[in-house]
Amino acid sequence: MGTAIQNKPLDTGHLTVDLNCDMGESYGIYTLGNDEAILDHVSSANIACGYHAGNPAIMRKTVALALAKNVAIGAHPGLPDLVGFGRREMTITHQEAFDMVVYQVGALNGFVKAAGGKLHHVKPHGALYNMAALSAGLSEAIAEAVYKVCPEAVLYGLAGSALTKAGKNVGLRTANEVFADRTYQQDGTLTSRRLPNALITDQNEAVKQVIRMVKEGKVLSQQGTEFTIQADTVCIHGDGPHALAFARFIRQTLENESIVVQPIKS
Predict the structure, then answer these.
(1) Residue 179 has pLDDT above 70, yes or no
(2) 28 SS3 class
(3) Which of 85, 118, 210, 232 is most open to solvent, judged by the fewest CB atoms within 10 Å of its CB?
(4) Tens digits of per-residue pLDDT, 45-78?
């Protein structure tokens, strides 16, 4: 699933990249992450839509925080699995996938419009994201749902995946996403969280991987093979114990490397 290198420089000659983070994943009385502080260091926020995490009040509050900090807002639809945080695969039809995405994107878009903002992007969550990366049919259903609800939104998908291809085919602007804290398999997929070494816990190693993906368009797989990858947007996770420190560190390091952090142009 590796792709050609297409990073576009600004007039200044600097490379640019979007830095996104999954947010709004608290639920009821349970608080997850430090969204308000992390928003100071990212350019895009993927806000949970109530299926894998989040609820109406959390959605409203997170949208307001993102708007106040001038961070691009995205819908983060997932599988209906609060207990498993949307990370467990489910057998769903393409029609069910379409319906789920329309429902969740429509809900988040409603809160964005009510707050006077504009929905910037859509990024599927967890198992739905990984399933779509490999399934053309599932990806087509998701892309069609996004296009029907918000055709001006950017569709975020795993770099070189079936999801980004489907988005382009339906007429959406797409962004190839890479991950700071995840390892890769030689086919371009992410290492399953069920396997050893799926996560990169050393922040220096994680940022080193990101810098190389952005500057060289290369990443090393767990099998020791190297492949090309397009890094339009970099995902960091906001639910870890050191999430805020890492967000601050990666933003500072990117800027030190003359990489401009900014949202994907929609």
Answers:
(1) yes
(2) coil
(3) 118
(4) 999 999 999 999 999 999 999 999 999 999 999 9
pTM surpassing 0.85? yes
Give residue 234's pLDDT: 98
Which of the four CATH numbers 3.30.300.20, 3.90.640.10, 1.10.3720.10, 3.20.20.370 does domain 16-261 have? 3.20.20.370
What SS3 state is found at 109? helix
> In the chain, what are the domain boundaries?
16-261
Give 87-90 contacts, CB < 8 A, sequence gap 24+.
87/52, 87/126, 87/127, 87/193, 88/127, 89/127, 89/130, 89/131, 90/127
Amino acid in position 7 = N
At residue 246, the 3 state secondary structure works out as helix
Average confidence score pLDDT of the chain:
93
**Cα–Cα distance for residue pair 213/227, rounded to 1 Å:** 10
One DSSP character per residue, 62-104 reads HHHHHHHTT-EEEEE---S-TTTTT-S-----HHHHHHHHHHH
Residue 12 has pLDDT above 90, yes or no: no
